[in-house]
Amino acid sequence: MREHETAPMAAPVPQSGDTETAGDPRAVAVMVAFVMFLSILEATVIATALPAMARDFGVAPSELGIGITAYLLVSTAFLPLSSWAAQRIGPRRVLATSVLGFGMASLLCSLSTSLAFFVAARALQALCSSLMTPVGNLVLLRVTPKHRLVEMLAISTTPALIAPVIGPPLGGFLTQTLGWQSIFLINLPLTLIGAILARKLIPRIAPQPAPFDPIGFVLIACALALLIYGFDRLGANPGRMAGPAAMIALGALAAVLAYRYLQARPHGLVPLGALRHRTFRSIAFGAGMLLRIPHMGQALVLPLYFQLAFGLSPGMTGLLLLANNLGDLALKPVVGRVIRATGFRAALSVGTAMTMASLTGVAAFTEDMPLWAMAGAMLLVGMARSVPFTGMVSLAFADVGQEELPGAIVLNSIGNALSAAVGISLGALILNMPFVHDNWGGAGAADAAPYRLALVALALIGLCAVPLFARLPAEAGARITGRPARPSEAPA
């Protein structure tokens, strides 16, 4: 098949009322951007509403953390269902239904009068979220020619930069003016619009038989739940490592069992065929994971660094983080040309080195540094990461065949979830370790040394990705860049 051609899901037989149609990649990218924005915004907007919710539920604010944890656990554990549901029911139906379900779960969250009811509604919300973005990405990768992949993924991933910045201040404003229930009620018109857009923008792809694999699902869900919750507890309680370490060990064992089980079943719940591609392995679970870990860790460390070490207000902190994301956005229009000119290997290795160097530079901020200088530096940090992150997302699927996409989408999402869990856990672990405060911390809570240490440590982890990216073939991702790959250098 030539690069400019697309294919349906292993050529399923069209069902009545489900005639397969070609899709417009840009329209699908906009739809994926919409659902990604909705999902990420909901995961971040709740943070500033927790104290008000705790008062209404009659519990301590710390107990509301289970609502956030439940969302992360359920949305990750049910990722394997996305591919199966898309094949069994059809991606357009799954996407429209999950968006509407997300809205209904949001309504239930707003009606919660107890912690138990809220956690149950939040879990339902997370289940719908676990279907939205992966299924949208599955369609986007199917309808997008290889040579337009960088352009379309740049559109679809933009909300990942915006939603985490506007989420907390939006949640605070709505909670203060309209009550915490409003942070969930705003999802009702958004999800209604999303369901309509899904019906109009997502092409019809006929469903095909896809038997459910309960054993594979249980193994994958248990592995991910144990690993993510174990890492979460490890970062929160560095003085009590035995319990979290045991959970992580059990999760790793379950992951090994799941891998062996799925390896013996090429047509199981999550096909592993995409792992045969060196480029995919490198991005999902290799160098790409090492690059994503510090990115997720700094998302936790930077807000604390600016507010607790330098005494900046939440508003000023939000502006600095906004500058960071604006730098990334500013470079998006030229990222494709940069990658085509240099190739993926150079773009990823040099871009990663620059990203980690800029993150280390943030650790050198001082209390008397002007705010405009901080904002300018954060703008440069965002620009530095734009090339490697956009290139990484594009390269992951450069060599993956159409028939391998369902498994590849789930595997890549699992790699992203594990990167987030490890990154946030490591950031929290360094900040919470008594050893760090005893040796580097000052007498007050405003001392910057622990945060600087955390940023430098995360940057060093990211630097480990540079030699791994440098070992990629010179023509890796040639189907996207248009460079002809020599047989001796073609990706394995």
Description:
This protein is 73% helix and 0% strand. It is mainly alpha-helical. The chain folds into 3 domains: 20-207, Up-down Bundle (Growth Hormone, Chain: A), CATH 1.20.1250; 213-268; 276-492, MFS general substrate transporter like domains (Growth Hormone, Chain: A). The longest helix has 29 residues, at 115-143. The protein is globular, with a radius of gyration of 22 Å. The model is unreliable at 1-21 and 485-492 (pLDDT under 50).
Write the CATH fold name of the largest domain. Growth Hormone, Chain: A
Determine the number of helices (DSSP H or I, runs of at least 4 residues): 22
Could you tell me the mean pLDDT?
82
Topology as a string of helices (H) and strands (E): HHHHHHHHHHHHHHHHHHHHHH
- How much beta, percentage-wise? under 5%
- CATH H level, superfamily name of the largest domain: MFS general substrate transporter like domains
Secondary-structure arrangement, i.e. CATH architecture of the largest domain: Up-down Bundle
Question: Which radius of gyration do the C-alpha atoms yield?
Answer: 22 Å
Distance between the termini: 19 Å
Task: Assign the CATH class of the largest domain.
Answer: Mainly Alpha
* Class based on secondary structure composition and strand pairing: mainly alpha
Approximately how much helix is present in the residues? over 70%
Outline, from the CA principal axes?
globular
Sheet with the most strands? none
**Unreliably modeled segments:** 1-21, 485-492
